[in-house]
Amino acid sequence: MRRTMLVYAGIDEAGYGPLMGPLCVATSQWCIRDASDPLAPPDLWKLLQRAVCRSAKDRRGRIAINDSKKLKGTGVAGEHPMRAIERGVLASLTLHPTPPAILATDTELFAHLGVDDPALHAAWYAGSIALPWACDRPRLQIAESMLRSAAKSGAVASHTLACKAVDAESINAAAQRGMVKTSIPWALLIQIVQALSAQWPTTAVRVAADRQSGRMRYLDDLMRAFPDDRLAILHEDPLESIYRLDRAGAPASAPLVISFTVEGECGHLPIALASMTAKYTRELWMARLNRWFSQHVHSLVPTAGYVKDGRRFLQVVRPTLAAQGLAETRLIRAI
């Protein structure tokens, strides 16, 4: 009997609101055997329950996959706040069709994820951070082994992570071209969906994303992004909007279905893992930024880059920027 395949992808972002640091939009893409219905993607928490769960305090030591806001720790009791997030993100790389060798630095991780915004070559992002950064390698290796075993028995063929990142300089350039703030993550999302469609032209694709800017209707924007495809509204209400794209040249059995859901990371594991990946990627870049400025400013209190604290941080580092001949517009977002 002919085996079918479903590509089930989730997209989420981190860093939309801050004053500084990159906006990161990540995708978690799963290839699942014998699950061709894009309107009914499998519950991956259930399918992989031997290895994954939603809680960072699982008694069985499984891998926590959830909204990054729910998994980032407080740092009490000496635990790194990013421990659970890093473990989930790095362990998931073991399911890549060609798994990377042991990633020794964040530079190697960024290359694997495809993070390539030229603005991230700013002086304050110099150097690299050794990996693992927040959890120990033996626990990571255990997690990888658990996930490989669960994926094999759960009909998961492979998993791929990717991340796009745009820093302040690129965001400001987009603003000068007339783009509004909400259009930037949407543009990155569309790029990801277009790439998925091109990569899997004859395979059913299910894309799940969080609701974008609180909007309920997306048909017009999708039609502009996919002018050659036939689009249909499957569902629109205040909680979820779902659309079907019958792609030009693709068989009728291989549509691309995309949904935008309020708190989508609660219902779609790929969105949750994308959330973790975007957060992890941004936190590593911010760690680089804080490290560089702390080398120039004595007793500098680090920043996460959000508006109120970002303004405090900018006041302190402004003399350093001037002394180094670095424009504030390369650090601070205009929108």
Q: Quick one: overall form?
A: globular
Radius of gyration: 20 Å
Alpha-carbon distance between the two ends:
54 Å
CATH architecture: 2-Layer Sandwich
What structural class results from the helix and strand content? alpha/beta
Overall tally of domains: 1
How many helix segments? 10
**Got a strand count?**
9
CATH topology: Nucleotidyltransferase, domain 5
Residue share in helix: 25-40%
Oligomer kind: single chain
| SSE order, one letter for each helix or strand | EEHEEHHHHEHHEHEEEHH
Query: What do we call the CATH homologous superfamily?
Result: Ribonuclease H-like superfamily/Ribonuclease H
How are the strands ordered across the major sheet?
Answer: 5-2-1-6-9-8-7
Describe the structure.
- Helices cover 36% and strands 19% of the residues.
- It is an alpha/beta fold.
- The chain has a single domain (5-330), classed as 2-Layer Sandwich (Nucleotidyltransferase, domain 5), CATH 3.30.420.10.
- The strands form 2 sheets. The protein has a 7-stranded mixed β-sheet with strand order 5-2-1-6-9-8-7, sandwiched between helices. A two-stranded parallel ribbon has the order 3-4.
- A hairpin with a 3-residue loop joins strand 7 and strand 8.
